[in-house]
Amino acid sequence: HKALQQVGQKMRLSIHVDPWDEQPTPWQENPPEVQPYILTVIGPDRRGLVAEVSTQLARHGVNITNIQAIFKGGKNPMDNLMVFEVDVPRSTIMQDLRDALHEVGQRLDIEIDTQHRKIFESVSNISN
Fold this sequence. Notes:
128 residues, alpha+beta, 25% strand
């Protein structure tokens, strides 16, 4: 911990370390059957964007497996793209999840699209 603090001070970073609890979470002990989905988020970058999207995903039991972001800045907010690869429990009511993400999109002035991974890959292969 002290070594990390020393490195952090040199870089003007504050580093906080908590002990890891090795107890498995309920999700780890009994993982649900899931389906792979891709969420694309297009629009202006702003503080809290990832937190807002990930909060809604967590509320629906969705696990984020990968995030990629391309923020070009500039005057065109449509140049900013985030791609979330997620595992959605089969028990999730997709319309409820889409409605919650749509509300986030409206509030943050971003577009959020949700597609099953197979559909996303098929469409991507056709357009390339």
